[in-house]
Design goal:
The protein is built from 17 helices and 20 strands. The chain is an alpha+beta fold. The protein has three domains: 152 residues, Jelly Rolls, CATH 2.60.120.260; 210 residues; 170 residues, Reverse transcriptase/Diguanylate cyclase domain (Alpha-Beta Plaits, 2-Layer Sandwich).
Length: 574
């Protein structure tokens, strides 16, 4: 960010049209337009009787450099002012939005206020100022035009009267509150809260590095935003220049922004990227120690390099995105919005495009672009976390529960049966000769078969039942409150659906069959015994020719270790 970008955001709260700022009976007048300006310094320049016809004409609001591009130092502005009839009764007030870098205001030769301190103890003035025009100043030219003179000291880069000067009754101006600090406060608080949240999330899940990088970017931009606040800037200006602090915050965010995008899109952070990150560190050190004038001179090149880097990252993100990658489109759009808004603002600072207005008194697209980026990354990281959690419970191919979920459910149901009685059934399913499908048609066709089998299991089971992928081509279904006849009915229903399954392949279609082992336990049944019995029934179904089902009804209270007798299985063939 250049100095002008930092200053304009502070200044624009008073850059609204006069009609938007006027108040009933206040007679608000915006003193924008052509003023007179002169380099150098003399107490006589405040005298309203001074002949200033040879002074240069400059636009206000506007940067000092537009008239005097090679001058950093002392200078003066002057403008003739007519007091409206509505202000004759006074008291008259003048409101200054932003004047860089330090200034004093004189009305008819009487000093009425200022901001900052002049050399040799220079301190930059920060934020708006409201000044009362004393009656003795008005009385000096009661029957003619009044003269407002502003003495300025421009230390580096962009200076001068950067926001309109407004004149009205003092009480009217005092009652008006710019929304700038409120808007900045809301934005900074929001970004800071997002950053703290993701930092805490990373502290609990240290493998989620994207959350750490995102947190640092949000916190750095929040620090950058605080330098726009009049209150914060006034507090820190005695210790560190707000411009320097804001620039350091943005430079510090650079390598973490790059690391975040590379992490989100699974790009390789190689030697080239590490060299660029080291360059950011070097620039950060220079921003902390270099004179402000030097920073202002080189900052446009730093900003241009940041813009090129952000656009390059967007291109890499587009190339790395894939429709199969969750939230890829969201991430690309968010990153592009942030990069393009930054580039647009940079271009507007140098007059290539007009300044964009987004919020009242905050006209920069940067904040809107970063807001879109935060929402996009927040959505993506939250979605990635949710996907990780869901993937731990659900098989992504078949959309069935994973094995450990089924085993936990079996133990809980066995505990419930011990307390209240009842029965449950476990159906183990193995696709017959599934390896031949993969060998003959490839794993793509095999995955399609597994996906469709999972869909059949979900449609065949009741809503209360729990179908799961047990491993490979093996599936299992926990049937709650079900005895052997109900389990056999479910198994037959599934087999009927499976007979109709056809997966198209070049030259025909693939059809698969399955072997099923069913075990039913009641009352004090042990969940491990139920699994062993269903697995044994499945083994028998496969050994006796496949494409069939075998059901076993366990004795009540069967436990592991063979403490209960295992009855002879009931066999149902295809």
């Amino acid at each position: 960010m250049t100095r002008r970008l930092l200053l304009v955001l502070l200044a624009v709260c008073l850059s609204l049209p006069a009609a938007a700022q006027s108040a009933p009976g206040g007679g608000v007048r915006v003193l924008s337009g052509t003023w007179k300006a002169l380099r150098g310094d003399s107490p006589a320049y405040a005298d309203p009787a001074l002949d200033d016809r040879a002074w240069a004409r400059v636009a206000v609001p506007g940067g000092w450099e537009t008239a005097f591009p090679d001058h950093d130092g002392l200078g003066w502005y002057r403008v003739s002012v007519t007091i409206p009839d509505s202000l004759v009764a006074g008291p008259v007030g003048l409101s200054f939005g932003l004047v860089g870098d330090a200034y004093e205001a004189y009305f008819n030769g009487v000093k009425i206020g200022g901001r900052g301190r002049f050399p040799p103890d220079f301190v930059e003035g920060v934020g708006p100022a409201l000044m009362l025009v004393p009656p003795e100043a008005l009385a000096r030219r009661a029957n003619g035009e009044h003269v407002l003179a502003v003495r300025v000291f421009n230390s580096y880069s962009q200076g001068g009267i950067l926001a309109p000067v407004r004149m009205a009754r003092y009480d009217v101006l005092a009652q008006e509150h710019s929304p700038r600090d409120m808007v900045i406060g809301v934005l900074v608080s929001f970004f800071m809260a997002i950053g703290v949240y993701h930092l805490v999330f990373w502290l609990r899940r240290r493998a989620a590095w994207e959350n750490l990088w995102f947190a640092v970017v949000c916190l750095a931009v929040s620090l950058y935003g605080t330098t726009y606040s009049t209150t914060v800037a006034s507090l820190v200006v005695e210790h560190v220049n707000p411009y320097r602090l804001g620039l350091m915050a943005m430079v510090a965010a650079g390598p973490f922004f790059m690391a975040l995008i590379y992490r989100l899109f699974d790009l390789r952070f190689g030697v080239r990227e590490r060299i660029i990150a080291a360059g950011f560190v070097a620039v950060l050190a220079a921003a902390a120690a270099a004179p402000l004038a030097l920073l202002a001179d080189v900052n446009k090149w730093v900003s241009a390099l940041l813009a090129v880097g952000m656009l390059t990252i967007v291109v890499r993100a587009v190339l790395a995105s894939s429709p199969h990658r969750p939230h890829a489109t969201t991430l690309v759009l968010g990153t592009a919005a942030f990069a393009l808004s930054y580039v647009y603002d940079l271009a507007s600072q140098y007059g290539f495009v007009p300044m964009a207005w987004v919020f009242p008194s905050v006209p920069l697209l940067f904040w809107l672009g970063f807001l879109v980026f935060v929402v996009a990354v927040g959505t993506s990281t939250a979605g990635k976390w949710a996907l990780t959690e869901v993937t731990a419970l659900v098989d992504p191919l078949t959309e069935l529960s994973r094995r450990h979920v089924l085993e936990d459910a079996l133990r809980r149901e066995a505990d419930r049966l011990r307390r209240g009685g009842g029965a449950m059934a476990l159906v183990m399913i193995d696709l017959d000769f599934f390896k031949q499908v993969n060998d003959a048609y490839g794993h793509g066709v095999g995955d399609e078969v597994l996906m469709r089998v999972g869909r059949l299991l979900r449609s065949s089971a009741r809503n209360i039942d729990l179908p799961a992928r047990f491993g490979g081509e093996e599936f299992a279904v926990l049937l709650y409150d079900t005895r052997l006849d109900g389990a056999l009915a479910f198994a037959e229903r599934f087999r009927a659906h499976l007979r109709e399954l056809r997966v198209p392949v070049p030259g025909g279609a693939v059809q698969v069959t399955a072997s099923l082992g069913i075990a039913v336990g009641a009352d004090l049944v042990d969940s491990d015994v139920l699994v062993e019995a269903a697995d044994r029934a499945l083994y028998r179904a496969k050994s006796e020719g496949r494409d069939r089902m075998v059901g076993i009804n366990l004795a009540p209270g069967a436990t592991s270790g063979g403490s209960m007798p295992m009855p002879r299985p009931r066999v149902e063939e295809a």
